[in-house]
Structure formats: C-alpha cells, structure tokens
Amino acid sequence: MRPFRTPYVLGLYAAMGCLGYLLAGLGAILPELRAERGLPRGEAALYPSAFALGLITVGLLGHRLAARLGRYALPASLAALVGGAAVLALGDGRAGTGIGALILGLGGAGLVQLVPAALRASADGRGAAGTVALGEANAVSSAASVLAPLMVGAALAHDLGWRAAFAGVPLAAAAIPVVLLLRRSTVAATASTATARAAPAAGRAPRAFWSRWTDLVLAVAVEFCVLFWAADLLHTVKGMAAGTATTASAAFVLGMALGRAAAGRAVRLGRDRLLAGAPAVAAAGFAVFWTVPAPAAALAGLLVTGLGVALLYPLILAQALEAWPGQPVRAAARCALASGVAIGTGPPLLGALADLAGLRAAALLAPALLLVLLLRRVLPTTRSRR
C-alpha cells in the first residue's frame, strides 16, 4: 500500500503551518501596530475584521473560484496568505495594512476550504489514512501557532522589529510547499472540482443546525478575543515589557495545541460532557488570568484558558455538520461564515469597549461569551432530563 505522507501531503501540512503561524502572529503584532501608528484599540481591531471579511468572502464564493483555478487553487491560496502578510507588514498607512489583512484572510480561508478535501483525496479512499492526515495537519498548524508569538517576541527583544518575524518567516517557509503543491496537480484539481460539483440543490437548514451555528460563533469569538488581545493585556494590565508580553502570550496557543493534541482521548468522555465542561474550564482559567496580579499565575491561567477553548471549535463544528447531513458543502460554507462573523465582531467589539472602559474591563467580554455558551449547552439538557 502506497504511503500517504507523500511530498504533496507534506506540502499541505506546511501550508497549514503557515496559516497557524500567521493567525497567531496577527494577534502578537497587534499591540505593536497600535503603538507604531497611534491607533485606538477599536481601530486596531479592524485588521482582524479585514481578515474576517476575507473568510466570509471565501465561505460564500470560494467553491466557484476553486473550480475556475483548478490545479492552481491551493498554491494560489498559499501565495495569497503569505503575500497578504507581506503587504500587511510593508503597507504604507492604514489602508495598505488593511488590504494586506484582507488578502491574508482570503488566502487563509482558501486553505481551510481546500486542504481537507485534498488530504482526503490523497489518501486514495483509505479512511484511516485521511483521518490521520487531517489530524497531523491540524497538529502542524497548532505547533506553528505556538511558534509565532515566540518568534515575534524574540525579534522585539533583539530590536529587530516585528516585520521580519511576522512576514519573513512564512515567506521563506512557503517557497517549498508552493512548488510541491504545483507539482502535484491531479489531486488539487480533483479536490477543488469535487467541491464545486458537490453543491446540492437549495434547501433550508434545519433548526438544529442554526443552533450549533450560533454556538460556533460564540466559541470562535472567545478564541480570537483572547488570541488577539492576550499580548496587550499582559503588557497593559500585568505590566510586562512589550517583547516579553508578546512571547508570554504563547501560553494561550500552547494550551490550545495541547488540548487539541489530546482530543482523541478526550472525546471518549462524550461530546456533550466535553461541551459542557470545556467552557467552564476556560472560564476558570480566565478568572485566574484576569484576577491574579503575579505574572506566573496569570500565564498559568492563560494556559488553562487555552486548554478549555481548544475543543470547542472542532466539536461544535462536527455537530453542526451532522445537523445538516444532506447538504455538506452548504453546511461547511455556512460554518466558515460563522467563523468570519465571529472574528469580524468579537475582537473589534472588545477593542471598542477597551477604548471606552479600559482593556481590563473590556476583557470580561470573553468570559461573558463563555457563560452564554455554557448556558446554551447545559439548559436544554437539564430541561430534557426533567
């Protein structure tokens, strides 16, 4: 049996690593962008909103664009991802930076849409191999997301500036996977064409799907509120130096990486239990992070927050797709739309609240969203038992 970890599959892994790196890196550089350009937090948060706009656009129209690009869809998405990072880093003024974030979002959303289908196709119908490949791709992405704030923090500590660490590293790393993705044209073309042709006839989503869709918005909003504002909180509230705060913010993505690495074993406990317990764990970790002034304890709380948040997105996404089994392509597109809505509203709302009431008070938006999510998961179960 032919091994599935071919150079093409390794190229897909590397592409997901670039995506994880840049998502975490965008949060790590946000305080630097704000200080460099004298922006209020509400305006600085518009950069994540530009990324979210790219995600929403691809969620609505990406399958058609992928069908037209064919074999070039995957390398074009990766090129847009790292090219957007370069434009964001080198862009002159607010407009250039915003355009870079938008291009970055378009490329990242393209990878989210195409890589899973390409991995399944590359496994030649072997379900176990496809599942392993998807897990390994997410593991690479999570590991790279831990690396990003460490690299940005190290660059700041050595007076190198954030640009080389944010844009230079993924630009250099993306050269080889772009070549690998171009060389293997059959799988990419097959996956993107299948995605386009699989669009089913119109039909209304069931009510259960929209309930899970709402949960997905809440979960993704919490994740990105903490991801984009953790470094600023550590610097502004906990009194850490800017470079140290950026490096220390890796505690959150480290917790997420550890949580997702243990997802296979954790699921044995039952998804309903996990989805009731995970928000509680995340809220408890955030309480420690928010209340304890000691930096070491705050970082421990941030790590626990990441552990609690880690499983929310994959578990709720799976439930959402199961709730609309007859139309998987449309369900996946609507879930991408949920992520875009969450990223485009959660972090900017927190930034706007921070300008009005201070960052420490505004940060309570994250546990408030966790509480709403927890109630949405627990109350229906309690009523059904009664």
TrEMBL record:
Domain of life of the organism encoding this protein: Bacteria
Domain called Major facilitator superfamily (MFS) profile: residue spans: 1-385
SUPFAM superfamilies from the UniProt entry: MFS general substrate transporter (SSF103473)
Keywords attached to this entry: Membrane, Transmembrane, Transmembrane helix, Transport
InterPro entries: MFS, MFS_dom, MFS_trans_sf, MFS_Transporter
Segments traversing the membrane: 12-30, 45-65, 72-91, 97-119, 131-156, 162-182, 216-234, 240-262, 274-292, 298-319, 331-350, 356-375
Cellular compartment(s): Cell membrane
Membrane topology of this protein: Multi-pass membrane protein
Broad class of the protein's primary localization: membrane
PROSITE patterns: MFS (PS50850), PROKAR_LIPOPROTEIN (PS51257)
PANTHER family according to UniProt: BYPASS OF STOP CODON PROTEIN 6 (PTHR23514)
Family, similarity comment: Belongs to the major facilitator superfamily.
Name of the protein: MFS transporter
Taxonomic lineage: Bacteria, Bacillati, Actinomycetota, Actinomycetes, Streptosporangiales
